[in-house]
Write a structure and sequence with these properties.
The protein is α+β, with helices and mostly antiparallel strands and 224 residues long. The chain has 4 helices and 7 strands, in the order H-E-E-E-E-H-H-E-H-E-E.
Length: 224
């Protein structure tokens, strides 16, 4: 059961990591709204790296952001958080793969494999939190500008990439929690088994040997 839970949680984490990677590359982080417009000939959409415009014929023209320092602070923070999430997920995947009970790669000591798996699960949780903060922060800025009646710029709505980011973050955190709990459960099982073995050894009869008249006499005494 523990091995099955480890495999399921590891697959969940990998799925979440792949979804977060797809989120970072997706163009549709925010899409211009058609609310209040009668005729729309151009659709604007952006991600963390570029801004694009698509006309009524379906032709898109994109322009990368010119200066990093000229970007709003939240976009710079979201970039850093998303990149950190992917890096943490990659490191966590390597550590978890080495720590899985069903794998024989690199490590043979059960205690070290458990520590690697727990560390990988914790890093998956941390990576999921990073991407969750980035996506939620970006979405909060979109909604704040949308409902601000004094905002004179183009108003946007939530893009498909944000929903992918939320899904990937949940998968990473859920898989990391399950992976950590499965390793902890395995450690508790080993502790219970060792405790039972120790109690059985204490309850077993012990033989005492002593010498009487140059002859060795063995007596059995039971200790509870």
């Amino acid at each position: 059961m523990t091995s099955t839970l480890e495999i399921v949680s590891f697959l969940l984490c990998l799925g979440g990591l792949a979804t977060i990677g797809a989120t970072l590359l997706n163009d549709y982080w925010k899409v211009s709204t058609i609310h209040g417009s009668v005729i729309t000939t151009t659709t604007l959409f952006e991600n963390l790296w570029q801004s694009c415009a698509k006309d009524s014929t379906g032709v898109s023209n994109c322009r990368e952001f010119d200066s990093l320092l000229a970007l709003p602070a939240y976009i710079q923070a979201c970039r850093a958080l998303m990149i950190a999430s992917i890096l943490l997920g990659f490191i966590a995947a390597v550590l978890s793969l080495l720590g899985l009970k069903c794998t024989k790669i690199g490590l043979s000591d059960e205690d070290r494999k458990t520590k690697f798996a727990v560390t990988g699960g914790f890093l998956f949780i941390l990576g999921g939190l990073c991407s969750m903060v980035a996506v939620s922060w970006y979405a909060a800025m979109i909604t704040a500008q949308f409902f601000d009646s004094l905002y004179a710029g183009t108003k946007y709505e939530l893009g498909d990439a944000l929903y992918l980011g939320w899904a990937g973050s949940v998968l990473c955190m859920l898989g990391g929690i399950l992976l950590t709990c499965s390793c902890k459960g395995k450690k508790n099982e080993d502790y219970s088994f060792n405790k039972y073995a120790y109690s059985s050894a204490q309850a077993a009869p012990r033989q005492d040997a002593y010498t009487k008249n140059s002859e060795t006499v063995i007596s059995n005494k039971e200790y509870v």
